């Protein structure tokens, strides 16, 4: 079944075309695919474009057909639909060929998150297809082993975060100040913190940065200028940097790179989001309503009624 998956909960605008099907990983029997494995989407085999996993008690095969990712926090609205068109054109797939839509529900900033959720809902409604929502942080945490936390930028000197145990979310999502996150993670025995939010406060999160083979980069070089068109990249992501202030998996502008640490998974992967929705898609379960995870009220305030004027 063909799915279009997208996420706009972070500075990255990410889109992927994914094929999901029933299947069992090598060495996995019917007995292993029981409800006991539900919520533990541990990948047992992956070659960069195909992954086999147990999700929701079902064994599934997930194949990435094409993907794009542009990092620009100010241009989600103008980038998203052209990126969807690029992905479909590359795979020679028509919108009518799709079987469903998957979208990251955040948490994320109000405007960028709304772009993705509204676009996914409108696209699914126009096609008469179901739209499935997945927590965006799961697009990073579901592929991790051990007890690990994932953080993304919540602005206002805060981060969105959640804790995962071997790929299953066990706490969150929350929004907190960085030092409050450190205290909470110590109580939860989380071994390390990954994700774009961790790079924003390297001094605060230094104790949670596990040593790794690669130093934390200041930024990832852009492969091309931001635009709605660009080089075809197959199933791999297109990490074009935009004209805004976004950077990819590194310190923000003017910030000092953090200490060496385990390689960071980066922004939420739409392929992983599709994998997490695969069990419901294949079972043709009706999706829940798309409810964005804002976690706090928007900055805009309701206008007050005019004051009475004494005559």
TrEMBL record:
SUPFAM superfamilies, per the entry: Actin-like ATPase domain
Extent of Gly residues compositional bias: 243-255
Amino acid composition bias (Low complexity), ranges on this chain: 219-242
Residue runs in coiled coils: none
Gene Ontology cellular component list: cytosol
Annotated region described as Disordered, given as residue ranges: 212-269
Pfam families: TsaD
Limits of the Gcp-like domain: 74-182
Any Gene Ontology biological process: tRNA threonylcarbamoyladenosine modification
Protein name in the entry: Universal protein YeaZ
